[in-house]
Each structure stands twice: as structure tokens, then as C-alpha cells.
Amino acid sequence: MTRDRFIAEVRASEAMLYHVSKSILKNDADCADAVQEALLKGYEKLHTLKNEEFFKTWMTRILIHESYKILKKNKNIVPFEEYMESAKLWEEGRYSQLYLAVLNLPQELRVLVTLYYLEGFSQKEISEILNIREGTIKSRLSRARKMLKEELSGEEELLC
């Protein structure tokens, strides 16, 4: 893959990369760091990409590893500003109920929901990205849908 082709592929995948990192990290600055690190590592390791057709899957896998690395590093740190911003946005109702419900999912399910429903990866591609069997992905997606349905139906009952 040439440098120009790499840049074109990255630009085409930019929003997807941000969404995937956001499903793991939540903090915009950390997301930007994860994407930047993933792109740097991807460019450095470009020679290891065997088939250009799988660039998006390959890059997503690198990004997920970088996101988890940042998450592990910041595990016990919650900046006060971030907490206050989150509380403010919650109160103002800027996020849809579905978005907030997805954020409340356990991390492993949140990543799967983002990859499958928001970014359109197939279960097979997710299996390759996360090194998880397709059957496991199918059952976790089912569990995530059930949890979202329960949470969102609870919201409807409160509104009635």
C-alpha cells in the first residue's frame, strides 16, 4: 500500500475510528490520542498488512488495542472537569436516550454495538478484530439488545 493510498483510506475511515475509540474511552482527548497512536502504528507497520482489502479491519484492531492501553493507563482517573461536563450534558438532555443507553452498557457490549450497528462491520469482521468466536459475538449482541430494550422500555414507562 502506498503512502497516498494509506492517507485516502484513513480519511475514509476517520469517523469510524473516532466512533470505535469513543465506545471504549468516552473522553474526546483520549479518543484523539488513541486514533493518533493507532494511525502512527498503522503507518509504521503498513508492511505487515497482507491484503489491502482488510485495511479497515486491520486499522480498527490496532485502534482497539491502543484504546484499551489508554484506558488501562487512566483506569482510576476521572478529571473533575469531565465529570462536570458529563453531568451538565446529561441535565441538558443533549444526548438521545438511545445514545445514553448504549453508554450505560458494559464496555465489551458497547464496543460490539458500536462496531456492528454504527460502523456496519459484519460478525465475521468483528470476530477477526477482537479475536472472539462468531457465536460469542452473536450471543453478546443479543444480550446487548436485550439490555437496551429493558433500559429504553423503562424510560417509556417513566414518561407515561
Summarize the structure in words.
78% of the residues lie in helices and 0% in strands. It is built from eight helices and no strands. It has helices at residues 3-25, 28-44, 55-73, 80-92, 97-103, 107-118, 123-130, 134-159. It is globular and about 50 Å long. With 160 residues, the protein is mainly alpha-helical. It starts with a helix and ends with a helix.
Give the overall pLDDT as a whole number: 81
Number of strands: 0
As residue ranges, the low-confidence spans are: none
What percent of residues are in strands?
under 5%
What share of the residues lie within helices? over 70%
Largest sheet: none
Spatial extent as radius of gyration? 17 Å
Shape: globular
List the main descriptive attributes of the protein structure presented here.
single chain; 160 residues; mainly alpha; globular
What's the arrangement of secondary structure elements?
Blueprint (H helix, E strand, L loop, with lengths): L2 H23 L2 H17 L10 H19 L6 H13 L4 H7 L3 H12 L4 H8 L3 H26 L1
Put the structure in a nutshell.
The chain has helices spanning 3-25, 28-44, 55-73, 80-92, 97-103, 107-118, 123-130, 134-159. The protein is an all-alpha fold and 160 residues long. The radius of gyration is 17 Å and the shape is globular.
